[in-house]
Amino acid sequence: MTTPPRIRPPRTADERTQLLGWLDLQRAVVPWKCEGLSEADAHRSVLPASPRMTLAGVVSHLRWVEHCWFEVIFLGRPAEGPQFDDGPENADMMVEGVPSAQLLQEYAQQCQVSDEIIAAHALDDTGRHPDFGATSTSLRWILLHMVEETARHVGHMDTIRELIDGEKGYY
CB 131: neighbour CB atoms within 10 A? Predict the structure, then answer.
C-alpha cells in the first residue's frame, strides 16, 4: 500500500476544497506513522493509562469514526460497529491479532466511502439518523470535526511512534 501524499490545500481555495484538503492531509499522515513497523510494534502499548491506544488501535478507531459520522449519523444507515455494541469502552481500538496492513486497508476504504458521501452532498445538508441528536449537524460541521478528530489522533500517533522507535516528523 502506497502512502498518500501529504499536501496542504491551496490557501485561496474555496471552502469545500480547503476542508477536504486539510482532512486528506491528516488522513495521509495515518499510514505514514505506521510505515516500517513490525506487527508487534504496531500493536505495542506504550501509554500505561491508555493500553488500547496503539498505532493499530488508533487506525481502527479512525476507520470507525469515519463510518459513524458519514454513514450512520449523516446518511442514517444502521448503527453498526464496535462502538455501538454493548462491549467495553474503546472497543473499536481492540485489534489484537488483526494485521496492521488490513487495518490500514480498511481505513483507506472507509475514507473512500466517506469521500463519495461528501461529494454527493452540499455542506449545508444535515444528518438523517433518527436515533442521534447529532442528526441536525451539517456536513460542514462534520468535516470540521473530522479534521479535528483525525489531527488529534495523528498527534497521538506521533507520540506513540516516537516512544516505539524514536521516529518523528510531521510531513
Answer: 10
Distances in Å between the Cα of 19 and the Cα atoms of 125, 140, 157 are 15, 8, 22
Residue 81 sits at the vertex; the CA angle it makes with 79 and 87, to the nearest 5 degrees, is 110
Q: Which of 137, 149, 30 is nearest to 83 (CA)?
A: 149
In terms of Cα–Cα distance, which of 153, 146, 147 is closest to 73? 146
How far apart are the C-alpha atoms of 159 and 138, rounded to whole Å? 32
Write the pLDDT tens digit of every residue in 131-150.
Answer: 887 768 999 999 999 999 99
Q: What is the H or E stretch that residue 30 is in? A: helix 15-34
